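Technical annex B. To support the medicinal chemistry partners, we prepared a structural model of the target in complex with nicotinamide-adenine-dinucleotide, based solely on the information shown next.
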Amino acid sequence: MKDLTHFVNGQHTAGTSGRFADVYNPALGEVQARVPLASKAEVDAAIAAAAEAQPGWAATNPQRRARVLMEFVRLLNRDMDKLAEALSSEHGKTLPDAKGDVQRGLEVIEFCIGAPHLLKGEFTDSAGPGIDMYSMRQPLGVVAGITPFNFPAMIPMWKMGPALACGNAFILKPSERDPSVPLMLAELLQEAGLPDGVLQVVNGDKEAVDAILDNPAIQAIGFVGSTPIAEYIYGRGCSNGKRVQCFGGAKNHMIVMPDADMDQAADALVGAGYGAAGERCMAISVAVPVGEETADRLIEKLVPRIEKLKVGPYTAGNDVDYGPVVTAEAKARVLGLIDKGVAEGAELVLDGRNFSLQGYEKGFFVGPTLFDRVTTDMEIYRTEIFGPVLSTVRAKTYEEALGHAMDHEYGNGTAIFTRDGDTARDFASRINIGMVGINVPIPVPLAYHTFGGWKKSGFGDLNQHGPDAFRFYTRTKTVTARWPSGLKEGGEFHFKQMD
Ligand code: NAD
């Protein structure tokens, strides 16, 4: 049995708490490693060392910091296959999807190479007679990221890239389900020239998270994961006086208008609903066809496409559309929700509950499942299933479809499929959801825009990556400077007007 480590002060460090969690190969359903779960003392020691390393990193000029990230990008490309293999073996997603996971993180690192431009600050010449005013963006100090299992490369990089580019030290607490890739990222950053202690990876569970939340040296926390944990971290982090942004769960609706290209809509739904076994916060989990006829046509197009999906282990390479879910508990939860949907009276068009694959009988596979005539009071509609299950809610009108998406408690992503520009514009303008696709099923913004949901999908202000990340990981200091030209005035006792 392989024992994984933490990565502290530039070295792999064995856990000392005596507590471990099992890391599975979800395709085989077998434990392949143990990850140490850090104690409060281990987390506090890593934070203390990061606090010592941070001033030196902050004093390194922004261009030199960016060069470390530039080299990191080269190393990520060099090791792409190795990273994807490790990622797939612990997460279960296909190899092409694992490469996409690394790639979407890498693109944020590429964006961060432009940090010197984003950190330039602002300057007003002659704001008053002989007075200049300038604003600086300064790093916060030691900041932390707490990340989910479903993107073990991308989301840690979304957090660490901007934080490090801004001159902070960074504590990463990755998911205990697939911790190998975050450790590999730390190794690569060290190889790229990042000074020891500036990035610390501490593996763990609630104990490690609470240690981060309560440590006074931690200035800011970026979290991604499920909504109940997001709310907990936001509340406790804020009450401890930290800057906190938390991104939570989702239930993304795709509205299909009667005028949509139905083949295009069905193709999009199959990819967005079942890709990565539905374990994406931007997965489409609810299709909302407008009108009975549209719904019938959509279901007719969807069924043969879904029946053709190839479900299997990542080792099948390109020959598989999606893999297992992450753990036995995740599988049991998804199957339980499908049972619940049947009991609640939804029409089960395709049933993935009895899926089995020869040679992988113990794997955590769930076959593709399609529900029709789901209603908004059902648990399968209200809950994030996070599995390969697509629900169809039939709406009579566009307004009703829009209302469903708007009334749902989550507000991460959404999409509309239509040929009508007026409807699409109206949808984009009125919808209360953070990321919107128009004939695009998974509208994940690129690195130089920002990513974030509304309602119960996001807590705190400012989004991830893009310019917002540079605001989140810095604080602004504004200096008003006067260099008198020789004429000395007496003291002033009122606010000076800039005339
Ligand atoms: P999770 O909430 O179980 O875990 C996320 C992190 O929180 C992990 O590092 C975990 O160790 C930690 N954690 C878990 N329980 C905790 C507790 N009781 N106290 C303190 N920390 C705890 O989420 P997950 O299952 O790893 O990820 C899936 C969820 O993440 C889904 O809900 C998905 O929608 C969401 N997600 C959201 C986004 C987004 O940007 N909105 C992106 C990806 C995933």
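Notes passed to the chemistry partners:
The mean pLDDT is 96.
The chain has 16 helices and 23 strands.
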